[in-house]
Specification:
Largest interface: A-B, 17 and 20 residues
Structural class of chain B: mainly alpha
Shape of chain B: elongated
Strand order of the largest sheet of chain A: 6-7-8-3-9-10
Shape of chain A: globular
Number of strands of chain A: 10
Oligomer: heterodimer
CATH superfamily of chain A: P-loop containing nucleotide triphosphate hydrolases
Number of strands of chain B: 3
Distance between the termini of chain B: 24 Å
Structural class of chain A: alpha/beta
Largest sheet of chain B: 3 strands, antiparallel
Order of helices and strands of chain B: HEHHEEHHHHH
Number of domains of chain B: 2
Chain lengths: 228, 174
């Protein structure tokens, strides 16, 4: 089976400091994979390499079997826009835009007409229990609400792969749980592959499988579905 | 904690007299609750009866402590199986986890592989409890949360211990 996204012997250094050393991991289509590890282990760097935000110094990144790390930046950018969604720790909503404009942003960047983009964006507000907050700006949202808006923005373009980097890291337990319920429920409903970076075991427990990044290497504790 | 299996682990290191076993057991695992001599010798007697240890010849200067106990292949196999197998993931396992890591380090075994296996077992149980939470009512969620938070505490200990293995190995084997 072709992996939705995979890293093969990926190496990456920040200056002279190695962050990834021959990191190999494959995420099956529709799988929710938790990437765990202590601070500074390289787990976020691995996510950034898989998502085409960083270009590895060595090794390969493949998306649905096709090598992507050697693509020109413009093509990698298009890949991120058209096939990937992102949720980061602090939401990173655009403060000048309303919540619904934030959600619509990936569609607008992909060339969808504004009216249609906003209609599709609004559909996510009820789905994620955000009804009535469409016109708020990020400063007027609670942490949990902002993170659900960020999740809606990550999912609105129906990506093949959602990359979530510590999506509950800035939230209390109950709010984080609510966000994870929404994230996992939405991904399962749509068959979206999820790469979930977290240092919290209770968050990783929402995933189908986990790997640990240790000193820049990926340690797989359980076999991938369909793989020995 | 399993006293018989811990004693087998100490005997796996080297054949020992009862007195030496008690001294090492109390120093490493007693933590303020020394192993009574009566329990020590009754446990060793059961291990010998079951073929897991053999009792050597009484040595010169004979007394009950002058018998040397030697682990058998059967005992070593049983200990090895216990050491490798992750404990069923449930709260309050710290003493068992601690004993397994300490013995693995003392005997030069792969403690990191054991901790990884235990981590996978804990996370599997946490996944099951998370599914219970997502599919059940509030009472189910509260019960599952109790288990999840305790398992998470164990996992933090596993992470910290993994990070400290080199230093621990030096201390345990010194």
């Amino acid at each position: 089976m072709t992996a939705a996204v995979e890293a093969l012997d990926v190496r990456f250094s920040f200056g002279s400091t190695p962050a990834l050393r021959d990191a190999t991991v494959a995420v099956e289509a529709g799988e929710i994979l938790a990437v765990m590890g202590p601070s500074g282990s390289g787990k976020s760097t691995l996510l950034h390499c898989l998502a085409g935000i960083l270009v590895p110094d060595g090794g390969e990144i493949r998306v649905a079997g096709r090598r992507t790390d050697d693509l020109p930046e413009a093509e990698r950018s298009a890949l991120r826009r058209d096939r990937f969604g992102f949720v980061f720790q602090f939401g990173q909503l655009v403060p000048e835009l309303t919540a619904e404009e934030n959600v619509a942003l990936p569609l607008l960047l992909a060339g969808v007409r504004r009216r249609e983009a906003l209609v599709r964006a609004r559909g996510w507000f009820e789905r994620l229990d955000l009804g009535g907050l469409e016109q708020r700006r990020s400063g007027e949202l609670s942490g949990g609400q902002a993170q659900r808006v960020a999740l809606a923005r990550g999912m609105v373009a129906e990506p093949e792969v959602l990359f979530a980097d510590e999506p509950t890291g800035a939230l209390d337990s109950l709010t984080g749980e609510h966000v994870m319920d929404m994230l996992v429920g939405t991904a399962r409903e749509r068959g979206t592959t999820v790469v979930l970076v977290t240092h919290e075991a209770r968050v990783a427990a929402y995933a189908d499988r986990e790997v640990v990044v240790r000193d820049g290497r990926v340690v797989s504790l359980t076999p991938a579905a369909g793989r020995p | 904690m399993s006293v018989p299996l811990t004693l087998l682990g100490l005997l796996e290191r080297e054949p020992s007299h009862g007195y030496d076993l008690k001294r090492d057991y109390d120093a490493l695992f007693g933590r303020g609750r020394p192993l009574p001599f009566g329990q020590l010798y009754s446990t060793l007697g059961r291990l010998a009866r079951d073929g897991k240890v053999v009792v050597g010849e009484t040595e010169a200067g004979a007394g009950p402590d002058r018998k040397r106990y030697v682990i058998t292949d059967q005992g070593a196999t049983e200990f090895e199986a216990w050491l490798r197998e992750p404990v069923e993931a449930e709260p309050h396992l710290q003493t068992v986890l601690f004993a397994k890591v300490t013995l693995a380090l003392m005997l030069g075994r792969d403690a990191e592989a054991y901790l990884d296996a235990q981590r996978a077992a804990h996370l599997q149980r946490m996944r099951e409890l998370t599914e219970v939470k997502r599919g059940g009512g509030l009472v189910d969620a509260l019960l599952a949360d109790h288990g999840l938070f305790h398992l998470e505490a164990d996992l933090r200990w596993i992470d910290l211990t993994t990070a400290r293995l080199d230093a621990l190995r030096t201390e345990v084997r010194s």
